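Tip: read the tokens left to right.
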């Protein structure tokens, strides 16, 4: 139940995740006074809540000591969507904000999420697909960093 709580808070605040960083130009094109009327502080707070809740989801499941306890003590078939949501929020945040105050913590949480998803992947096609998507995001991050393209996200 606690995982679902954090998952829902992540989803509620997710629309503000990287909103200003990625969509500033599009929002400006829609209305010229967007920046003046937008509540930047509320947007940044919602983004921070989204990231914090995603991290809480991952950290909670990191406390599960063994794969066996994850598979037998948790309803893992319900957790896969929560884990994938949390994992994607953490990974996208670390790509968009490489100088995040806790970038090493974001990276550690991303690795933990990957490890937690590995446990049910041999029993669940959904978990296996999630791992494939995570590998694609990892490859994208590597390609962006190696090509210097990541800088386009921070030019606002």
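Filled-in amino acids:
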């Amino acid at each position: 139940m606690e995982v679902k709580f954090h998952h829902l808070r992540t989803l509620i605040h997710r629309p503000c995740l990287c909103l200003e960083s990625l969509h500033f130009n599009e929002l400006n094109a829609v209305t010229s006074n967007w920046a003046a009327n937008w509540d930047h502080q509320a947007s940044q707070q919602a983004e921070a809540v989204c990231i914090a809740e995603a991290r809480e989801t991952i950290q909670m499941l990191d406390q599960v000591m063994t794969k066996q306890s994850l598979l037998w003590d948790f309803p893992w078939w319900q957790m896969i969507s929560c884990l994938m949501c949390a994992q994607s929020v953490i990974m996208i945040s670390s790509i968009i904000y490489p100088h995040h105050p806790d970038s090493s913590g974001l990276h550690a949480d991303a690795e933990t999420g990957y490890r937690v998803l590995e446990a049910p992947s041999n029993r669940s096609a959904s978990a296996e697909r999630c791992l494939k998507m995570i590998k694609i995001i990892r490859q994208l991050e590597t390609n962006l960093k190696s090509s210097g393209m990541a800088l386009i996200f921070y030019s606002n």
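Residues 2-154 form one domain. Confidence is low (pLDDT under 50) at residues 151-156.
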